[in-house]
Fold this sequence. Notes:
Elements: H1 7-15, H2 18-21, H3 26-34, H4 43-53, H5 63-72, H6 75-103, H7 108-136, H8 142-149, H9 155-173, H10 178-211, H11 215-245, H12 249-264, H13 280-297, H14 304-313
Amino acid sequence: MTDTLAPDTFRLVEDAQLRGILDIHIDDMLEYVHSGLRDLPGYLELYDRYLRQRWNVNELDFTRDRTDWTEAMTEDERASFLAIASGFHHGERQVEIELPIFMVGCDEDHKIFISSQIEDEARHVVFFDRFYREVVGLEGDIMGTLDASYQWISETFVGPFGLLAYQAEELRRNPFDERARVRYATNYFLWIEGVLALAVMKITLGYARRRGFLPAYYTGFTATARDEARHVQGGMRFLRDAVDRDPTMLNEIFDTLRTILLMSSTTSRLVYFEPLGLTRDAVLEMLITQLNRKLVTVGFDLPDDIRGMVQMISPQLAGG
């Protein structure tokens, strides 16, 4: 289970309470996500881990973050930060209300685990709501801050989440359609959580750690990354089991990835990552590395045509 982390580092990440998470390097937390992919845990095992790793968003103190945001960060840094954080703000809320639709078609062990994930997503919404109100300075209730932060969302987030809304509606009409469930799971668990979220988390968290800024944000969002480890492992367990039962489900996985990559090959609005210390090419490389690692670890080989679509997005990443 610890093949991507030293055992002592694995235990530190696995067992840390909220205050101790500030001391964990984000790279170790991202590696922790992959620590269970070769021997995927069962849903009740993941639920037990949830019970041990739950954290209280109200224990965070954003006082120092507010000072860093207003007095130490530049305007360009704040703009790049908001363009990234806002996608998470809205994504957490969308999944909080749509994931119950996916849960309807799960077996009982899986339902129990998904119920814990829904609670995680609600906690993440509250985390970002506190950040936007207490640090950025937005006003209003939860929906008010969501409305106000929408202006900063980039197409990187809009495309996959727009597709996810369509897939959730498809499941609402027939929650036991296994092929529709695999398409939803591919977009959400594999791409949005396993690729997009984990890669983009590295940007704001790496920045905060390098600069020594935003300690409450770093703590809460790194704890969020640990929650994502359970979600991604549970989602990859679902996809692998679906393919084991019916190998033609790979067609649903790859067709969904083709749709996502096609959307990702064009954009009318670029997010500038350079103020936070990364280039666009470096971010693209992280995305594709995350995708390849998830697929290879669970035994799914990426077809040549999808590798070609990756090349269209960033030629130097051809071949993964």
